[in-house]
Amino acid sequence: MKKQLISLQRKYLVLNIFMLFFISNLLAQEAERPFIWVKQSERSQILEKIAQEPWATSLYTKFLNRADEDFNVYQKSPELFLKKLPFNWEAQKPTQIPPLKIIIRTGPQEKLSAPKKYIEYSLQVAIDCGVLYYLTNDEKYAQCGLDILHTFIETISQLPYPTESGNNGIIYPEDHLYESRVINAQIPIIYDFITPFIKKGGMPYDFVKNKKVLFNNAKAQKVFKNYVELVINQGMTGSNWSVLEAPSMVQNLLALDNVSDRKKYINVYLNEGSPRQDPLSTIASFYKNPGDVYPETSNYSNAVASYSTVLMTMLTKYDPSLNLIEKYPNIPLGLSRWEAMKYPNGELVRFGDAPRTGGTSYAYCEYAYYLGEITETPDYKKTFGYLIATAISEDTYQRDELNPRSFPSRVYFEPLQLLWYSENLKGEIIPQKQPRTDNLVHASVFLQRNESADENPENGLMCFVGGAAMVHGHATGMNMELYGKGQVLGVDNGNGNYKLDLHENYSRLFAAHNTVIVNGNSQSEGGWANLGQNPVELVSMEPMPLKEAVSPNFSFTQTSFLDDKGDKAEAEEQRTLALIRTSETTGYYVDVFRSKSKLPNQYHDYLYHNIGDALVFENKDLTLVPTPNRYMANANNKWVANRTYRHPGWHFFENVETSSQYNKEVRATFNTEKMDGKPIYMSLHIPGFDDREYTKVKAPLTFSAPKPYDTLATPTLVIRKNGEAWIAPFVVVYEPYNETPNNKSVQSVEKLMQDGIYKGLKIKSKTSNGLITQYIITQAEHELYENKENGIIFKGVFAIITLDRNEELTEMYIGNGEELHFKNNSIKKISGENFAAYLSFENSEPQLNSNGKCIAKLANGKQIIVE
């Protein structure tokens, strides 16, 4: 009996604990408004922050001044302020506010007309007034916000709810994706802040009735629920749409007064999803490791981490028991990933529909820090505290800088700066260098960088090879970009206005990229917008992504690509791109591109675009003549937007001039002399091979290029190889330099052949230490190169030997291989995968560095062993 009594007491204790937890959780969910962004209980702490923190005082002053400027316009005449909205007056019913006009957008980049922009502007004014009412208790702000809220609820309630699934909105019947961000997500925030005023008896001004009326909460609740259902039933899975529309869903569901409905819809957002809406759990599946990103281009990918971080914070504040930071810790950690994808000048590597600028949004890093603070997650505070503190110390970010209003296409989160930025920000400033190599997996991007010791962007070197299918991706083949002297010189075209001929039939296609076009018919097929291509695959790389380099001066990638979309290319390709630093201020790139097709009568065209004024050939006997029809074969092919294209896009080339077959070495220079600062040049040394034709063209402008090149045609080189280009590949040495046309370092380039097969280059360069000679060998794995005349033997993929002005050995480098000999000096692998080693003779004692066991034998009889 006693045991039964104890057991019963334990059951009641457990039940009581459960009930207390349930009741406290329910009370938290039924808390007085506002609670979507902030709670009433947080107000005093925010006011204290504004009073005591100089940055917060400054930020608040700027926010207040901007809001007051808008409020004063409203206060002069609420009627005129509200009547400026684009109403459909012909559909007005007696004594009612008329419905808004429906809006048909012409495209994602259309410029907003004044009426359209006014919709977004007025909602943002109302949110600002709601925030100021929360902070000041001044009812003039509440009245303004309520008047705008009432007007929108009344006008939207009269518009039809879409009955078919698609991208169908209410105001924008063909673009819910846009409407959800700029309209639908804003209205519930106004409601949340203004509800206390309504409960105190506040009434909205109705400009048609010309008097104050009761606020119709039933209509508002229906609007909020409709907006939630729109996100569930409209949109598109498998892309960032689900996240871009999610702020509308989450903020509207939190505006619902029915707690059960909130709980139901939170589960849809987090777990269930729908046929047209990916849940957060699906989005999180792309963030398996810290630093992972959503698999789209930079700006679209960044938006996923940014919006998701804000929504995770909102829901954590609403219901901490959801444990979102424990379930999905890597989503916010993706915010900083794009910093590692920047060139030394701060611009982004570019692929697909992406800008040249961007990267980390410090506002969203602040929100992630705040999320770490409220959940007591030290890793978040450490990671984002460092990023924010470092940016402040480098004067690239100021906490008191008020972000501009969100026009267009963005959710209005800017007031969160004032509400969520922490007054206890702590961040250790730790100088960090970017890794020598990196890999953005979803884009198959393999980058190399070599920053100068003085960290001068002018002296940094960086390049990448990449290409893959993704949402907002382009059909690029095995694309390349090159950086030098403070600018991205070898460029990807980027993107302009969507749906235009230039974007559809050039920017998205092979001809806009530094790649190879096979048989004039390299193309995309399948996948998103029918722009599918095979991913670029890594064959070999040193150093491997994020790993330590064995050499301070050298790195390389070898990649492959299968060009088999459609049925007219059917090609196998391999690209070896090496970055070679020769001094603190000089260096060059070696690009070796092999391509062969299964089809008869094959030919291959190597393309390279460089911003600049002109491409100048130095060979006096290389004669070019106009060939205006050379690239026009597909110019009139069928074009269906987002589906069928005029591949490969080179019919946009103008001023086309072509040589006859030319088998000698070619020297050429891209001159870039119109930018502010020093003129910049890109020198090209191209070894001679048979069956080559050289063409120079004016390609379309490069988007986001430095002025004035963002409005000028892009000089472009095209090299054609009739027949396969594998045994005798495309080989180009690129050297960026500045100041004067004769300031180049590379003096001569000779090809190294063995049994009629290309094996590498002998390059002489003028450096501050005098003339140096470098042998650069690139071949397939396990192949053997033997040059008895120069005393060179190499077995492996990639190697470099450097001699000083006295022909004395200074460096031996194996990027990937088994053994390298130069006269009586050698490096030989003992064990290790993807073996790499670097032997330097520049100090008094030779130094050997490697990633595996090896032995180096020196001409003086000494040996160095790395265990």
Bin the helical content.
25-40%
Count of separate DSSP helical elements: 19
Outline the low-pLDDT stretches.
Answer: 5-29
Structural class comes to: alpha+beta
Shape: elongated
Report the β-strand fraction as a percent range.
Answer: 25-35%
Kindly describe this structure:
This protein is α+β, with helices and mostly antiparallel strands. 29% of the residues lie in helices and 25% in strands. The strands form 5 sheets. Strands 22, 23, 24, 25, 26, 27, 28, 29, 30, 31 and 32 form an 11-stranded antiparallel β-sheet that branches. A hairpin with a 7-residue loop joins strand 17 (666-672) and strand 18 (680-686). It is elongated. The N and C termini lie far apart (73 Å). Mean pLDDT is 94; it is low at 5-29.
Features:
single chain, 867 residues, alpha+beta, eleven-stranded antiparallel sheet, 19 helices, elongated
List the helices and strands and how they pair.
Layout: H1 2-29, H2 43-52, H3 54-76, H4 78-83, H5 114-136, H6 139-156, H7 176-184, H8 187-199, E1 205-206, E2 211-212, H9 217-233, H10 241-255, H11 259-272, H12 280-284, H13 298-318, H14 324-327, H15 330-333, H16 362-374, H17 378-393, H18 416-420, E3 437-440, E4 445-450, E5 461-466, E6 479-484, E7 487-490, H19 501-507, E8 516-518, E9 537-542, E10 554-563, E11 571-581, E12 587-597, E13 603-609, E14 614-617, E15 624-626, E16 654-659, E17 666-672, E18 680-686, E19 692-699, E20 714-722, E21 725-738, E22 746-754, E23 757-767, E24 770-778, E25 784-787, E26 792-803, E27 809-822, E28 825-831, E29 837-840, E30 847-850, E31 853-857, E32 863-866
Antiparallel strand pairs: 1-2, 3-4, 4-5, 5-6, 6-7, 8-13, 9-10, 10-11, 11-12, 12-21, 13-20, 14-17, 15-16, 16-19, 17-18, 18-21, 19-20, 22-23, 23-24, 24-26, 25-26, 26-27, 27-28, 27-29, 28-31, 29-30, 31-32
